[in-house]
Amino acid sequence: MKVGLCTISAKNRDVENILRLAGAVGYDSVEIWGKEHISDGSVEACRRIAESAAEHGVEVATYGSYLRCGTGAFEDELPTELAIADRLGADLIRVWAGRVEYGDHDPDDWSRVVADLERLTERDAEYGVEVTVEKHANTLTNDREGARRLIEAVDDDRCRLNYQPGFDIPAPELAAEAEVLAPLSNQLHLQATADRDVRTRAPLSAAYFELATILDPFVERGFDGHTNIEFVTDDRTYREAIAADLAYVRSLLDR
């Protein structure tokens, strides 16, 4: 398993500065934030990012797009987002599963998201890019059942889940969720709070859940994708924060 850093972890930093620090502390890869860090998405902007990543020894694993399947904007945004992923040389493009939570959706919501994911997956194959669907609130993947059913409905190994532990789910339920969703995932996002009822970020080593119980189902299945640290605390320098979380994840993977 490779350990990556999401550049969204430092929204106000220049992306090339983040790439330099990621390489300096030993990350394997990065996920490029699909807003300010991607600039205008031009060939030149993407080329600079790709060259900087290579210079600092980190792979551009993922383009963290905001392409939202099942919405009216999907069709218009699709060509641009695919082109950016291709220009970056990313292996994955991160996307979103509509705007309605599982259980609140209607059949049309579901069918539109599934159809868009199927079409996106086919188009991505032309670029050698695969799809990772964010598990997130306010989408069809907000809970375990929605995430499982959606990935199984698409039924294509090139379209899998971007799994991340929730903020307010009891630790035993998170462990059970990871067991179910690990086989359906091609990427992880990691961030933590020290208390599930408080949204103050904490180092991964101080998470209210045992991170090992999240990682173990992936390790046991021989997961060879990227687990990406998404956000870090701001009570230490950025370099110290990303280095500490990296060291902790590696310590669990090396047991």
Tell me what you see in this structure.
There is one protein chain. With 255 residues, the protein is an alpha/beta fold. It has one domain: Divalent-metal-dependent TIM barrel enzymes (TIM Barrel), CATH 3.20.20. It is 42% helix and 18% strand. It has eight helices and eight strands. It has helices at 15-25, 43-55, 74-88, 107-125, 144-154, 171-181, 211-220, 238-253, and strands spanning 2-6, 29-33, 59-69, 92-97, 130-134, 159-163, 185-190, 226-229. Strands 1-2-3-4-5-6-7-8 form an eight-stranded parallel barrel, surrounded by six helices. α1 (15-25) runs parallel beside α2.
List the SSEs and their pairings.
Layout (H helix, E strand, L loop, with lengths): L1 E5 L8 H11 L3 E5 L9 H13 L3 E11 L4 H15 L3 E6 L9 H19 L4 E5 L9 H11 L4 E5 L7 H11 L3 E6 L20 H10 L5 E4 L8 H16 L2
Parallel strand pairs: 1-2, 1-8, 2-3, 3-4, 4-5, 5-6, 6-7, 7-8
Properties at a glance:
255 residues; alpha/beta; TIM Barrel; eight-stranded parallel beta barrel; 8 helices; globular
Basic shape:
globular
Percentage of β-strand residues: 15-25%
CATH class: Alpha Beta
Helix percent band: 40-55%
User: Major β-sheet, in short?
Assistant: 8 strands, parallel, barrel
Q: How many structural domains does the protein architecture include?
A: 1
Order of helices and strands: EHEHEHEHEHEHEHEH
CATH superfamily: Divalent-metal-dependent TIM barrel enzymes
DSSP strand count: 8
CATH topology: TIM Barrel
Ranges with pLDDT <50 over ≥5 residues?
none
Q: Which structural class do the helices and strands define?
A: alpha/beta
**What is the mean predicted local confidence, pLDDT?**
96
CATH architecture descriptor:
Alpha-Beta Barrel
Tell me the radius of gyration. 17 Å
Q: Could you give the order of strands across the largest sheet? A: 1-2-3-4-5-6-7-8
Q: Count helical runs.
A: 8
Report how far the terminal alpha carbons are from each other.
Answer: 13 Å
